[in-house]
Amino acid sequence: MAEHMDADTPVFAIAVAAELAGMHPQTLRQYDRIGLVVPRRTRGGSRRYSTRDIAQLREVAQLSSEGMSLPAIARLLDLEDEARHLRRRVAELEQELRRERENRPGVRVFAAGAEGSIVTVPSGRRIRRSTEIVLWRPRRAPADDPDDSSRD
C-alpha cells in the first residue's frame, strides 16, 4: 500500500492532522465547514487528511498569522491548486509532443505542384520553383506584357 501513496492520499485522522499542523481539531472542522481545507471522508464520514492537506493547514496558519483574511487565503489556495493542475497539464502536453516528435520519421513539407497536386517535399531538398512547384504566379495585365502582340 505504501508504494501507492502520494501527497493526496488521505491517511490522517483529524486529531493527528491537527497535531501535525499545530492547530486545534475544532479549527480544522471550521476550515472544512467554510471550504478552506476540505479533507476527504471515509465511508463512515470521518475526516481523513493527506500530507498536502497538512501543508495547506500550515500555510493557512502562517498566512493568517501574517494578517491575511480567510477569504483571501481561500483564493490563494484555489490559485495554487489551479497552478498545480496547469503545470501538470503542461508536463503532459510536453511529453505528448516529445512522443509525437520521436514517432515522426522526419519533417515533411507540403506544397502545390504545377498541376495543382499536393507534393511532399523531403526535408533538406532544394526545389526548382519554375519547373516543379508553383506556389503562386500572378497573371500579367495585357498592357504590362511586352510580348503581347495584340496591342497594335
From TrEMBL:
For this protein, the record's InterPro entries field holds:
DNA-bd_dom_put_sf (IPR009061), MerR-type_HTH_dom (IPR000551), MerR_fam (IPR047057)
Q: Which UniProt keywords apply?
A: Coiled coil, DNA-binding, Stress response
- MF terms (GO), sorted A to Z: DNA binding; DNA-binding transcription factor activity
Pfam families linked: MerR_1 (PF13411)
Keyword set includes DNA-binding? yes
The coiled-coil regions, if any, are 76-103
Query: Residues in domain HTH merR-type?
Result: 11-79
> What name does UniProt use for this protein?
MerR family transcriptional regulator/heat shock protein HspR
